[in-house]
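Table S2 (continued). Query chain:
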Amino acid sequence: MSTLVEECRDFIDMLHAKHHFSTHTLRQYQQDVRQFAEFLEERSRTSFAEVDVYTVRAYLSHLYDKGYARRTIARKLATLRSLFKHLIQRGRLTDNPLMLVATPKTEARLPRFLYPREVEQLLAVIDTGTPLGLRDRAIVETLYASGMRVSELVGLDLEDVDLATGQARVWGKGRKERIVLLGSYAIMAIGKYLKSGRPQLAAKCKDGLDQGALFLNHRGTRLSDRSIRRLLDKYARQLANLINLSPHVLRHTFATHLLNGGADIRVVQELLGHAHISTTQIYTHTTREALRQVYVDAHPRAKGAKP
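Corresponding output:
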């Protein structure tokens, strides 16, 4: 095993142990460091100790030539900064060549969200006549009603959900616990799934033991975040206007609809589990329809004049 591979694996193991990142986030880190390691191997570099500022800049040029967006390149560079910081802390390196490399500037990107009618269209294409359909309806309702992250959703156990109070306990980034609210539609959808969907899925588990996860796959075991992304993509393909649908789009939708409905931004911050208010402020964009309605309702001369 090469030194590059060993150091990459050690870095990923550290992230998994210390930061409790989701499977999806860890997979991104892993892909980023592996891609850089492959770039180095193609240039006969066998260790990260052989990397200098010119090597990093050549790698960034390589990514630009490959057609990667600035935002993606900035994320990959951030991964490398974390990697080299780790290597220095472990005593593998003494100098950090990333200190001399500037992060590519990226344009601010407003989060994509669904309009209420699009949420209704999404829910309408789910066939609730099957156990999997009942599960999928409950998943979409829960993501939209609570704003939880996909990693938080797949981590839910039966004991974490209290339908009587309409609350669920989730574990956010850094294993921070918080309570999210579900709302009447999500409560109803989860209740139907627990009664008529989950028992059939749980019975398919090979060892016959119910693992206690709330959302199960067709084999009776816990759903993965990748499975959630796939099922949303399946339903989005049935609706031409819902391209690039993801769990995070539903999280954006949750936040946007709350703010457009008049919710205080600090309340939304708490519900989303954001550590800093600045993270939540990106959701203060509003739809043109919402802006127009506020104008019509508030301005004394916005309404049609009488002849």
